[in-house]
Amino acid sequence: PPFLTVLGLETSCDETAASVVRLTPDGQATVLSSVIHSQIEDHAAYGGVVPEIAARSHVEMIAGVTRRAMTEADVGYAGLDGVAATAGPGLVGGVMVGLSFGKAVALARGLPLVAVNHLEGHAVSARLGARVAYPFLLLLVSGGHCQLLDVRGIGDMSRLGTTIDDAAGEAFDKIAKAMGLGYPGGPALERLAATGDGARFDLPRALLGRKDCDFSFSGLKTAASRLAQTCQTDQDRADLADAVQTAIARQLSDRSERAMIAYAEAAPPDDRQRLLVVAGGVAANRTVRSTLEATAARHGFGFLAPPMAYCTDNAAMIALAGAERLQRGMTSDIDTAARPRWPL
Ligand code: KG4
Ligand code: ZN
């Protein structure tokens, strides 16, 4: 057929997800289905993801979620060209559930298996919403990761910078927790910030202006958590939320600025598409998006973020990364192991 159709499975954190994606030879992706069961309610009482609860919930949900994704896609197992599953990095108990389930489907239906790096899924996620050519510069900001990547193609990415302590989403979550906002903290903090004005708070600006592309959020986390104790009114809390959001957005944009300069210098500019893509859960934040977009424009870079639904964890991005790999003949052995750590 003139296209590839791939079932993708994602179980590396707290969403059980399955999706069917179709990819044409020239890189046009169509999401035929994308089903996500969020475990947020299972973990909310603990203020964060409990690995054992997550793994058990994936076991319970994976078959039903996959069945729904297959029904909605309406192509039948015979219409699939491959099965892609997240093989890491992430909570290994959960990763094993999706990967083992994917192996079972692949074996039962005689389909190739593609083990996908979760980060590579986020890296291609903007291609689910628009035609995006390689190469591009990627800011990957999620609960577990905060990296700047030179993305030359599938399986061909190099890291320009990373966090030396917390990830950006982790900073959102921890500060939100200190403010009593519950889990996950990022979206709650963004909602609260909408009615706040952070100008009265002076938060630390880590690494600002430094020449490398690394991140650090621990100083901000400590300062904001201390200020949270002094907040008396709802307005105080909203003002602090706005200050925190602005500080995180500023750091992401300052480090991306460094990376844009390095990326543009790495080769004759005409050879390299000047495009900054942001992906991962934190890419859902509107202040983060608008700050990055303005910075990119100042450097002559275009800017793109995935559709909101594909910023946080989903299986469509895993199916697409799998399809892109399959297109290049990059399949995986059936005994591929789950990897809790797996740098790109
Ligand atoms: O990509 P993701 O779903 O999971 C990981 O791979 O980590 O990202 C989840 C992270 C959480 O830290 C969450 O608080 C953050 O993304 N997040 C946000 C927003 N939506 C999700 N952070 C700030 N603003 C948001 N609107
Ligand atoms: Zn993720």
Count of spatially separate domains: 2
Distance separating the two termini: 31 Å
Q: What does the main sheet amount to?
A: 5 strands, mixed
Strand count: 10
- CATH architectural group of the largest domain: 2-Layer Sandwich
The helical percent reads 40-55%
**How would you classify the quaternary structure?**
single chain
Rg of Cα set? 20 Å
User: At the fourth CATH level, what is the homologous superfamily of the largest domain?
Assistant: ATPase, nucleotide binding domain
Strand content: 15-25%
Query: Whole-number average pLDDT?
Result: 95
| SSE sequence, one letter per element | EEEHHEHEHEEEHHHHEHEH
CATH topology assignment of the largest domain: Nucleotidyltransferase, domain 5
Briefly note the structural class of the backbone.
alpha/beta
Low-confidence stretches: none
Query: Helix tally?
Result: 10
In order across it, which strands form the biggest sheet? 3-2-1-4-5
Bound molecules: 5'-O-[(R)-(carboxyoxy)(hydroxy)phosphoryl]adenosine, zinc ion
Please state the overall shape, judged from the principal axes of the Cα atoms.
globular
